[in-house]
Design brief:
Layout: E1 34-37, H1 39-46, H2 54-61, E2 66-69, H3 71-82, H4 93-103, E3 104-106, H5 126-135, E4 138-140, H6 144-147, H7 150-154, E5 159-161, H8 163-168
Parallel strand pairs: 1-2, 1-4, 2-3, 4-5
Length: 171
């Protein structure tokens, strides 16, 4: 399983002090912590303009956090938009499209054999869970069925949380 940078506190080893010249760093030397956003959080952020999503959105916009997603997740967002679920809010489809294209990094879904067994009662949510377990630090959701799996996800180093709890935890 890929290493999750910045997700968990690391124990410091006591090492002898060695004075050397610093090596030049490039942007490729750093890996951003990754987050999976489920569809309801994307809606809260980009359609409903929920202020509880503002710190999370700011971290993604500022490049301190990498939003990862799959084509299936994009398909679900498009499906929900096409059903008119948020039509009373007049979603800005261009804003949603450009934000997704600019900020979401599309990745391949993990092979089921590479993901710890953690099943949700709603099979539509499984794609978010599996991607988060395979490569992310956080799965941000409001879905109670997903949040109920939080303790088991934490055992493998992934936090399932709401946007508000994510920002309250000081990220």
């Amino acid at each position: 399983m890929p290493q999750r940078p910045f997700c968990q506190p690391r124990r410091r080893a006591i090492l002898p002090t060695v004075v050397t010249a610093p090596l030049p760093l490039s942007s490729s030397d750093f890996t951003l912590p990754e987050v999976v956003l489920d569809t309801n959080v994307v809606f809260d952020w980009l359609v409903f303009k929920n202020s509880g999503c503002a710190p999370l959105a700011a971290a993604i916009e500022a490049g301190r956090l990498q939003w990862v997603a799959t084509e299936a997740m994009r398909g679900e967002l498009d499906h929900v938009l096409s059903r008119g679920v948020a039509s009373t809010y007049s979603p800005d489809l261009l804003l949603i499209e450009t934000t997704w294209a600019r900020l979401a990094r599309l990745v391949e879904p993990p092979l089921p054999t590479l993901v710890p067994r953690l099943r949700c009662t709603d099979p539509d949510d499984q794609k978010f869970i599996e991607l988060a377990l395979h490569r992310a630090c956080w799965l941000v959701t409001r879905d109670r069925a997903v949040l109920k799996l939080g303790k088991r996800a934490a055992a493998v180093g992934v936090t399932f949380t709401t946007p508000e709890r994510w920002s309250e935890s000081g990220h």
